[in-house]
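README: folding subset

This subset contains proteins for which both the sequence and a predicted structure token string are available. Records are stored as plain text. Below is the entry for Sulfite oxidase-like oxidoreductase (224 residues), shown exactly as it appears on disk.
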Amino acid sequence: MQNKADRLKAARVPERPELDAERQRRLPPGQTLTESFPILHEGRVPEYDLATWDLRIFGEVEEERTFTFTELQELPVTRTVSDIHCVTRWSKFDTPWEGVRFSDLMKEIGVKPGAEYVMIHADPDYETNLKLADLLKDDVLLAWSYDGKPLTAKHGWPLRLVVPEFYFWKSAKWIRGIEFMKQDRPGYWESNGFHNTADPFKEQRFSSDEYYMPEDEWKYMEAD
Ligand SMILES: Nc1nc2c(c(=O)[nH]1)N[C@H]1C(S)=C(S)[C@@H](COP(=O)(O)O)O[C@H]1N2
Ligand SMILES: [Mo]
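--- output ---
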């Protein structure tokens, strides 16, 4: 998959649209605003039977746990409105999500001392790594709803992560497992030329300065 990062080398700097000062501030460098909701993922959209779907919590925990969808929905429900930023240069403001805060799920879990890193496991065969401290922020959700409706299959039904602080590849769709770790380990894109942290305001797109993201990459993708 190194090719993907290779392919994205060398292109023009995107033009920023006319925006008021507040929106300028909210739009990270090199991003373009979109009203559509692009759809991006590797592989096929998975299908699930909610009766057998579960979320597994494992790794550096006192006790392994699995949650059914119903059990997750019984936890405190939170609604957020967040700006999201994809590394392919689209950003979308004010996206409304509903789900359970990662920090509220954590109240149900005993994490072992020193487990400062998390690997999110998702279908089909997707992983992304984050620091536990970053997942505990108030706007980090395990979401089952977008814009007042259940997530669509393509956007991650029944459950996706939403971590607005980082490029959107960290917001894994179709999540099935949360693994706590003492040491960091790169996920799928993080091992394939993309940045380990992925802060859009620092433009942490790639693991190497040789790479560049074309301005129109996302315009060829499906959206709704
Ligand atoms: N399971 C899974 N989650 C994923 C991906 C993926 O390939 N598989 N792609 C990521 C990327 S690169 C982006 S930009 C967002 C896109 O989410 P969206 O399709 O809802 O816009 O999903 C992220 N979550
Ligand atoms: Mo992405």
